[in-house]
Specification:
heterodimer, A: alpha/beta, 8-stranded mixed β-sheet, 4-stranded antiparallel β-sheet, 12 strands, globular, B: alpha/beta, Rossmann fold, 3-stranded antiparallel β-sheet, 11 strands, 36% helix
């Protein structure tokens, strides 16, 4: 119980100096990932998800970037580590899966060599053992006939296969923490289902923690233990899947759920677009697009996060003292009604079962 | 009389790419990317074409609009005031796009608009978007620049952008906005059919909903027919009236969206549908697992092309093993036949594993069974005898003998007959031999309703 969380991110702020001014991509992000837990970071493109994960292991170039805040991995402050120390941590204990597999593989070496290399860099094993493990991993991520494909070069793999090989490479060293940036977005649903199952297995097998970044809410509901909803670099809401999907509190989360094909009645998406990251609006970042925005929404900073249920936090003025959150639920039917509204009694029961 | 009947009829469309061969040698084979597909699209209807990557969806679309020359079959397009014409005496249909000459082709291009997956790469970065959109107009003879501009500005507004966006460049637009521009360009010649190849796959969920809503609106406004290609079943569910499921160049199931997705009749559709992540945190159904990947279209499996991966693959009449065991047995045979059983690798892995604990207690045969998830003994004695003999042969390095031995009992009707399409009523058809009356009788399955 006294163990520190696997990953603890506090007040992470990543900004870039650009010609147009200082661009704050991630603004004061707090997130923790425990052992054996999958935390999903959800948001549209441009919401800062990718920058946030790359900031965790300091993959962002400084300058032009600038990373502030603390990141603790198993209680160790990563900010105090030297670059060589960080490098030995990356890939062994913290593994990354990037969105674009084309850029992350070396074209001059076989896929098997690259996976075996990843194993041998971090572990003292024989070449044969590393190779056998590489075959096994490729097999587990669903590469048919892995024993023969292992000697193929990246260009002989299709895009989806490369993505899977990347995942195999990331998992090769049995990392304690996996930072997965849209790892299945480019894959077919059948393959995606398989990868999600694999991540679940590894979680159970040796307690791997996963920070999973995606904009696909279907995937989120399949794998998340906890969800953090990001918008324009700020956390809008956080909670477990039942909180987010069945009683979403933030107007943004509700609109996002309304966009689900086949579920939402929100034909036409969310009107407006993300604010200019070099000049974010005052107050709540979502206020300019929010149908419930009142004057207080556009003042000061992003509203403080308020706990609206056990471990269910929301950053919205309407939940603060002196406001009435029921104005939001006037049309909450989009999210609440469609996703199978259970009565409150039932919900409490579900909760105690968890 | 021209307004009745389908707008587009595709019949036995084929696109084969030659493989091998050079300047002087003949090609040694063909990749059968699209291998005899047929469907109709009615006026104002949206047909979805779905399947995994590599199944031939995009090739099918490109062949229909002749961005690639089909190698066989007919594409009958009855729009543009055509229709109602009978076949010529030589059996050739005057509306057959694959036989259109230059002039007819140019007219056809006016009647069909296309939208591609990646909106970023479909606009010239050095041309104002308005000019890009107006280009087809000048190609097709609208010489009055002022009128071109008026047409484009009107369209920009109809797709949710502003007339003022005419002079802006592609990089000034977001992904969703570029897809709106692409739609405007597809609409500029007032087509009757739009072919959209994964138009929303590259977009975020909220923008996806946006573009789907727009497509829907524009479709009813302009009375368009839509061929919608996607690998995302949830998007298809949203927008399509009917859906056709493709696997390895063939359509395995087609019908009204609801009945195909709610009550799939082909095992492949079943697996695809079950793999869709549901946005309901209470269900964590991961669905049917499809093992392996899509086979090589240059050498598709005999019989039903899906039998190498099918979870419902049929057993011969005299067998009654459980589904999983049966699937594993077939997998084992197929792997041997492909020459991909690496007994040494399995042994090597066993050795590595054994170095840690005492895994050395099992025999080589047992380890081979374990590697293929085969049971210790198969309940059917004949199959067990063949399996044991085959495993021995594999360990002796005689794969040929092993495969032959297995073929005597481990064989499926699915690999011997190519399934015919069976009508389940309401325009819902699927091609699976489990719907074949003969097979049903042999397996003592009740006749289907």
């Amino acid at each position: 119980m006294t163990d520190p969380p696997l990953l603890e991110v506090e007040n992470l702020t990543t900004s870039f100096e650009t010609d147009a001014g200082r661009l704050v991509a991630v603004d004061g992000l707090d997130v923790t990932v425990e052992r054996g837990e999958t935390v999903c970071l959800v948001g549209e493109s441009g919401s800062g998800k990718t920058v946030a994960t790359e900031s965790i292991t300091r993959l962002i170039d400084e300058p032009p970037g600038s990373i502030e805040g603390t990141v603790r991995f198993r209680g160790r402050d990563l900010g105090e580590l030297s670059e060589p120390e960080l490098r030995s941590l990356r890939g062994s204990e913290i593994a990354h899966v990037f969105q674009n597999p084309q850029d992350a593989m070396n074209h001059c070496y076989t896929v098997g060599w690259q996976i075996a290399e990843a194993i041998r860099v971090h572990e003292d094993v024989s070449r044969e053992t590393a190779r056998a493990r590489a075959i096994d991993l490729l097999d587990r991520v669903g590469i048919a006939n892995a024993a023969a494909r292992i000697d193929d070069y990246p260009h002989e793999f299709s895009g989806g296969q490369k993505q899977r090989a990347m995942i195999a490479m990331a998992l090769a060293t049995e990392p304690a923490l996996l930072l997965a940036d849209e790892p299945t977005t480019a894959l077919d649903v059948t393959v995606q289902a398989r990868i999600l199952r694999l991540l679940d297995d590894l979680k159970a097998e040796y307690g791997m923690g996963v920070l999973f970044i995606t904009h696909d809410l279907g995937v989120v509901s399949e794998i998340a233990d906890r969800i953090v909803v990001l918008y324009a670099g700020k956390v809008m809401e956080r909670g477990d899947p039942l909180d987010i999907f069945e009683r979403p509190a933030h107007p943004y989360t509700r609109r996002l759920l309304g966009c689900l094909p086949g579920v939402g009645s929100d034909h036409g998406g969310i009107p407006g677009s993300l604010p200019d990251p070099t000049d974010p609006p005052d107050g709540c970042r979502f206020a300019p697009r929010c149908e419930h925005a009142v004057e207080a929404c556009s003042r000061g900073d992003q509203p403080a996060e308020i706990e609206v249920g056990p471990d269910h936090w929301v950053s919205c003025v309407h939940y603060h003292e002196g406001y009435d959150a029921s104005v939001l639920s006037a049309e909450a039917t989009t999210a609440d009604g469609v996703l199978g509204a259970a009565t409150d009694g039932e919900r409490e029961e579900e909760r105690s079962d968890d | 009389m021209t307004e009745t009947g389908p707008l587009l009829s595709v019949r036995d469309l084929e696109k084969h790419y030659p493989v091998g061969g050079g300047l002087l040698s003949k090609p040694s084979g063909a990749v059968r990317a699209v291998d005899g597909i047929s469907f109709d699209i009615a006026r104002g209807e949206t047909l979805g074409l779905v399947g995994e990557s590599g199944c031939g969806k995009s090739t099918a679309a490109n062949s229909i609009v002749r961005l690639e020359e089909p190698t066989g079959g007919e594409v009958l397009f009855h729009g543009g005031g055509r229709g109602g014409r009978p076949r010529n005496d030589d059996g050739i249909h005057p509306d057959d796009v694959t036989r259109f000459g230059r002039t007819e082709m140019k007219a056809f291009r006016r009647e069909v608009g296309m939208i591609f997956q990646d909106p970023a790469s479909s606009f010239d970065p050095r041309m104002p978007v308005g000019d890009s959109i107006a280009e087809p107009l000048s190609v097709h003879g609208l010489d009055d620049g002022r009128r071109r501009r008026a047409v484009v500005e009107d369209l920009l507004e109809r797709v949710g952008l502003g007339a003022a966006d005419y002079g802006r460049y592609p990089h000034e637009f977001s992904g969703g906005q570029k897809q709106r521009l692409a739609l405007a360009r597809a609409l500029v010649l007032n087509p009757e059919l739009i072919v959209a190849d994964e138009p929303v796959s590259a977009l975020d969920m909220s923008i996806q909903a946006d573009i789907l809503g727009l497509l829907d609106r524009v479709q009813s406004e302009f009375g368009l027919s839509l061929l919608f290609i996607s690998h995302d079943m949830s998007v298809v569910r949203e927008i399509c009236d009917r859906v056709a499921v493709m696997y390895l160049g063939e359509i395995v199931e087609i019908g009204p969206t609801e009945s195909v997705l709610e009550a799939p009749r082909h095992p492949y559709t079943e697996a695809l549908v079950s793999a869709i992540p549901t946005p309901d945190p209470r269900t964590t159904n991961r669905g049917i697992e499809l093992r392996g990947s899509v086979p090589d279209p240059a050498d598709p499996p005999d019989g039903c092309r899906f039998h190498t991966r099918c979870h419902a693959v049929v057993q011969p009449p005299d067998l009654d093993l459980d589904r999983t065991t049966w699937r594993r047995l077939l997998d084992f045979r197929l792997t041997i036949e492909a020459g991909e059983v690496d007994a040494e690798a399995i042994e090597g892995r066993a050795r590595t594993a054994a170095s840690g604990d005492d895994g050395g207690g099992s025999s080589a045969a047992e380890r081979l069974r374990a590697a293929f998830d085969l049971p210790g003994t198969v309940s059917d004695p004949d199959v067990e005898a063949d399996l044991a003999a085959a495993i021995e042969a594999v360990l002796d390095g005689e794969d040929g003998r092993a495969a032959e031995r297995l073929r005597s009992t481990v064989r499926t009707p699915c690999e011997r007959r190519h399934p015919e399409s069976v009508d389940h009523g309401g325009g819902h058809e699927s091609a699976c031999i489990r719907h074949d009356p003969e097979v049903r009788a042999a397996r003592e399955w009740p006749e289907q309703q």
